[in-house]
Model the fold of this input.
Amino acid sequence: MSDYNFAYLDEDTKRMIRRAILKGIAVPGYQVPFASREMPMPYGWGTGGVQITAATLVPQDVLKVIDQGADDTTNAVSIRKFFQKTAGVEVTERTTEATVIQTRHRIPETPLTGDQILVYQVPIPEPMRFLEPRETETRRIHALADYGLMQVRLYEDIARHGEIATSYAYPVEVAGRYVMDPSPIPKFDNPKLDDCPAIQLFGAGREQRIYALPPHTGVRSLDFDDHPFTASKADHACAICGSGTSYLDEVITDDDGGRMFVCSDTDYCARRAEGVQ
Amino acid sequence: MAMLDATVGHMPGMVETAPAPGPLLSVRDVGKRYGARIGCADVSFDLWPGEVLGIVGESGSGKSTLLGCLSGQLVPDTGEVVFDSRDRGPVDTLRMSERERRHLGRTDWAFVHQNPRDGLRLGVSAGGNVGERLMANGARHYGNIRATAQDWLARVEIDPGRIDDRPRQFSGGMQQRLQIARNLVSGPRLAFMDEPTGGLDVSVQARLLDLLRGLVRDICLSVVLVTHDLAVVRLLADRLMVMKGGHVIESGLTDQVLDDPQHAYTQLLVSSVLQV
Done:
């Protein structure tokens, strides 16, 4: 423990990241560049989220790390261990007990509160990356709020699939201004972004961008008048806890076509299963 | 001197299609230098509603620089470009903010590139390409956007059944027509065209020119047309400016300039055209 500065990063770096976070909170949805550091894990494993968590943690914090909703997958376990070792903070699997939650690809089913911070790991922060390859042009589009291009992406979806087939990383408009990529969360989670009491921070390590949603920010999913946004999920109930309203993972159980649908949020599922029994 | 007599441009045939009292585009003393070299210098002209102005000259004569300066893609060192906008009347496009210029660029203006790949999104279907301007201008009804796109594909003689094909799957001539549809869908009043028929074979060129002539007449479009092809300006342009070394050396009615060239260079240019 004493071999590391608190939460691994040095104090100057944490100050730099906190400044970027504050700027991001002041301009909701705007991508703030920051000097992303090399972390002891590969890009794509959550280096952006880890740096935000490191800059946000205080010794009294209780940390929860989730990966695709689960607390016990490789990514979640290794990041949790990382902060146990370098920051010595308490960790938990319970959403209600955590003060800082680092997440990959999900928002917890349990509603968040005003004293929590949700940190997202973001692979590609630019929502228009695959439509407009020039970074200079995408920045100009953001600056001028010239977002026709974003709508073209949804148009293409409907033209090709008959509906808006984008099912994750579904673009949103933040506080009536910036269009933002909410990281690869399923679009089922998009409504939870809106008016959330917790602070939501987004970190992209490789792309060196931080953006944020302050508490109770209006977040609207883009759509067409005649093809409105719908938050979709698998049309089943959870095989373990029986929840009909939570986001489900499909689990293949044998090579004979056997499958089951279970909650992707393991904490939510376990708490419900306990309560039911 | 490049300053044209306004009465020359305001031909009798144009009167009924020109409700605005003043010129649509008024250019004064536009000049751009690249260091010590001249891009273009002292260019002035008026463009009236429904009029097609051809700009001809050899490679490196400053045609494209001038077009870039007029359309806001380059910043000229001197001069002013006043456009008679629909909502605010005459505005100097060089001094407006980029937001206003972009707005103009997707509503009242059109820009047709020589290479359709520069003006199209190749990864987006034909319908998406045509619909982009509509969506940028706030259209949010998928059915209406698609219907308008289909209508415009038909107007530029592309089978509306190919609305979901990518531009990559189109021939060169179709790509160019798609680019024109994508630009004209917002009902612009002024189009900048940079060699719109370059790189097309002659029969495709002829169809494209025919189409352009019809569209210009139908929607009362004014065009600044840059080309080195004298046959194209003969067919399309009402008036002609000849450029050399960045300067306008001769201007006037197209037929007048081509049939009775005064400047030595224009005489050379006209006599260089191959006769079949």
